[in-house]
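pasting for ref
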Amino acid sequence: MPYTGIVKYHVKLSFDVDGLVERADIIGAVFGQTEGLLGPEMNLNELQRVSKVGRIEVDIKTTENTTSGTALLPMSTDVDTCALIAAAIESIDKVGPFDCKFKLDSIDDVRASKKEDIVRRAKEIKQKWSTKSVSEGDTMLSDVHEGSSGKVAEYGPNKLPCSSGIYDSPWIILVEGRADIKNLLRAGYDNALAIEGAKIDESIKDLCDKKR
């Protein structure tokens, strides 16, 4: 039957075997030698049947005549049951014909780890979206400000940057470039015209002749 329980704890153990064994031998010893130690309702087979224990994961490493490795049991029981199962597995002293020793390394609260991940991700989301919100707010304020103070237009055959108010204003402000016009617009002046170079365009001279 597939495991459908919600994992609460990871019971992690390490083991050393005085002989060459396979992963299936380790799993067989875990199930076989703990059976009946804690009563029928606490047998690993029964706990798996009711989705309290998941699939046991075993990693092994072998030398010329020894085997070592780790075993991980995903469990959805309370921590007391996890401790009992861990103690039962630590009592195993044989894998096949070989002496062995199991040792509990940790009982990890999976939910606590998930909570940390959730909090970390929530901080990332807050940072991303609050920054975006501020950026959008600044853009909106800028749009409102530009809308109230006019926009950059173009003047003459060479399409020189200018403020839209240069035609109606009795006088004009000559500036170097488009950026200067934007700065003056923000300051409330909409009668600026950009020279855009060292030489003054003839169209600028014509316009200036019409001003004070």
